[in-house]
## 1
Amino acid sequence: MTIDPASPIPKYSQLREILLDWIEESGLAVDDAIPSERELGARYGLSRMTVRQTIDHLVAEGKLYRVPGKGTFVARPKIEMSLRLASFTEDMRARGFEPGSRDLARRIDPASGHLARLLAIRPGAPVHHIERLRTADGEPMAVERSNIPLAVAPGLADQRLAGRSLYRLLEEEYGVLLDSGEQTIEAGVCDPADARLLGLPAGSAVLLLQRRSFAAGVCVEVAISTYRADRYQLRSTLDPLY
Ligand code: 16G
């Protein structure tokens, strides 16, 4: 493919399509280098500025990444976020990653009015607050903050959680089998503390998730999670509107 100077499509967009096609067809693998901006400019008769604009877009989309002084490389495809009531552990295992988890904080807090409403408990009732850094093959993926009423899992504070599945533990120790949930997902900017934990530059884009999970109609968990937007994307099937 070549750049068509007569096309109404801006040249940087034409180059984007050419590069994406070329990456797919040339069999370039993740972490392989793409030609330098100078080479691409010469190959397609484009200014360095236009080539840079295209590469900037592809980097922002997460298709390429740059290493200063080394070049530009093919990025890993993003993980498709599960839209099912899956535990992190199950979800990662199903994708062939080794799930991991590091405890960041564990407390029993009195429920604020807001949290009490979400959990459908009385304000001030004790709630386990569990903050964990979730990893896949050792790489930080998300910070998860789970809130579980004490009444649901009384001895949970004494249970070791590192490297274990919270959902599995709820099932095995407390007979709590999650059977439904609801979730919101929105774009956000990572706060500095979470950015450090996730190994992201300050101010990076993230996906903010709020999940309520239920067992037999009772709300068992309100989880507020920060997922890396450079590693996750959403995919859903679309049904007709009517
Ligand atoms: C998921 C849930 C989280 C839950 C965790 C349990 C989201 C946003 N979060 O990651 O609410 O606490 O699974 O995972 O989906 P675990 O059983 O591996 O500990």
## 2
Amino acid sequence: MELWYTERNIVPGLALSVEVSKTLHSEQTEYQHLAIVETPLCGRMLLLDNIIMTNIKDEFVYHEMISHVALNTHPNPKKVLVIGGGDGGAIREIIKHPSVEKAVLVEIDRRVVETSIEYLPEIACGLKDPKVEVHYKDGIKYVQDHKNEFDIILVDSTDPIGPAVGLFEGDFYKSCHEALKEDGIFVAQTESPYYNEELIPKVQKDIRANYPITKLYLAFIPTYPGGCWSFTMGSKKHDPEAVDFSNWAGYKTRYYNPEIHKAAFVLPNFVRELISK
Ligand code: AAT
């Protein structure tokens, strides 16, 4: 018998279906419904409140692109904070970077981390590294209590629903600005330019209010609605489009490279229009 999982909560009028061979885990945590399903096409998938968070097949695109663009824009990133991202994928990428000394993960839901360690070891593998520190807290509160501390802050958050709503708001961007050092860089996943036409201009405006350099970049993630996904960077000093890669030694990645870094900032006209609103 064929079983299919359909995501249809996030964009009204659009659904994405994946064949499922087995449900490996399902529970209601304090914050959300959490499930791990096995799929023939994408391997194991992490679902939160019935929305696809990540899967073995395409996770590398999202996790490399949320991390390496900022890590290579900053000339010497030592201390990096990830808010959300309990699966550990962004952490795995961050600790590949040779200058990173400490990577801090602040995830609201302990069960996302524990379940990812159990069922998604390929993604969660970096969480046990001695450079990594994990806190189970609301990211909004955590950044309020830390000033002038991080070189990079990455917001690997769920869509703007439930506990993640505040992670898309101006006050939070301001607190992140204060938690960053004087040449710090902020990056947030900022949803689909096709289906989040209201959110993206608002986020642009709010990030622009805090950072002199604000830029949106794109990556292709097949299991997120529409496939075309945006990230927004706010930088106090370093321009992501002016990175000199001529002496770049590199490290192992499957999506990211210097050409992708540059190309990600080349935007179609409709996206340019969205962010100039
Ligand atoms: N790495 C891709 C997976 C995610 S999951 C995002 C995580 O953010 C979840 O584990 C959720 O528990 C956590 N989170 C939500 N709100 C907060 C908060 N206020 N503080 C800390 N952590 C939080 C991202 C998927 C993107 C999906 C796009 N469709």
